Amino acid sequence: MASVAELISAKQKKKAVVDVRPGDTVRVHQKIREGGKERIQVFEGLVIKVSRKNSLTSRFLVRRIASGIGVEKSFLIHSPAILKVEVVRRAKVRRNYMTYMRELTGKSARLMGVDFDKEAVNAIHDEAAEAEEERIHEEQVEAYDPESAKAEKEAEKAEADAATADEPKSEAAKIEDQPKEKAEAKAPAPEQNKEK
């Protein structure tokens, strides 16, 4: 029989998470609250450490260079603030904790890429997280200005309709549409001063 702690941790775990490994380049979508507003922040970088993989407290450490300064962030995989984790690139590494990457810069910091099925790895659908992300996006659009947002959508739709209605014209049709003056201006100029 499972202990109380195991039952509670099983309830808090996400049903499906992305398989994150050291050496992966990941894009993490994190929900951030600032006062009464919420927004989604994307942090992309190299995973240099994965710890306690099958636990509720499993976490991974992501490093990236921002404005010439190394920035590291630790993310809990099962945290409700993490909406989505995408594996962008996978590399061949032999260590779990790649501390040596902190000293490397430029070409020496490159890792050898490995082919992998990107769609299969990232095909994790968490309905609750997707609904939350959609809700935050809608709030941002409404907070921007609901009337101008509707007007922009209508303008974009009108432009798309106009673009599909206009078919590309042939060169002959374009010349026929031009006024005669422009056509005469394009004609070669008569030669002058032949007597010299």
Explain the overall architecture.
This protein has 196 residues and is an alpha+beta fold. It has a domain at 14-125: Roll (SH3 type barrels), CATH 2.30.30. The chain is 33% helix and 25% strand. The chain has six helices and five strands. The chain has helices at 4-12, 118-121, 127-144, 146-165, 171-177, 180-186, and strands spanning 25-34, 37-51, 59-66, 69-76, 82-89. A five-stranded antiparallel beta sheet has the order 4-3-2-1-5. Strand 1 and strand 2 form a beta hairpin. The chain is extended. The termini are far apart. 8% of the residues are buried.
| Order of strands in the sheet with most strands | 4-3-2-1-5
Mean of residue pLDDT values: 78
- Which structural class is indicated by helix and strand composition? alpha+beta
> How many strand elements?
5
| CATH class division of the domain at 14-125 | Mainly Beta
